[in-house]
Design the sequence.
């Protein structure tokens, strides 16, 4: 099992190409890890499965 400390994060396409308010996303075997790229000292959030990831994205998009 891969450690969550050695994840490779990329800027999420949901960040809409900005350098402000970016969200970093790392793929997991099931689900994803998310972090605030503006606050790298804050721990990342692990979303453990596909349905939870889709619910997270829906809520994030609705909150904009």
Sequence:
């Amino acid at each position: 099992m891969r450690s969550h400390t050695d994840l490779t994060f990329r800027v999420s396409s949901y960040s809409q190409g900005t350098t402000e308010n970016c969200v970093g996303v790392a793929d997991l075997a099931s689900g994803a890890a998310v972090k605030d790229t503006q606050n790298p000292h804050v721990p990342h959030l692990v979303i453990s499965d596909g349905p939870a990831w889709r619910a997270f994205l829906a809520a994030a998009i609705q909150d904009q």
About this structure: Helices lie at 50-62. The radius of gyration is 12 Å. The mean pLDDT is 78. Residues 4-62 form one domain.
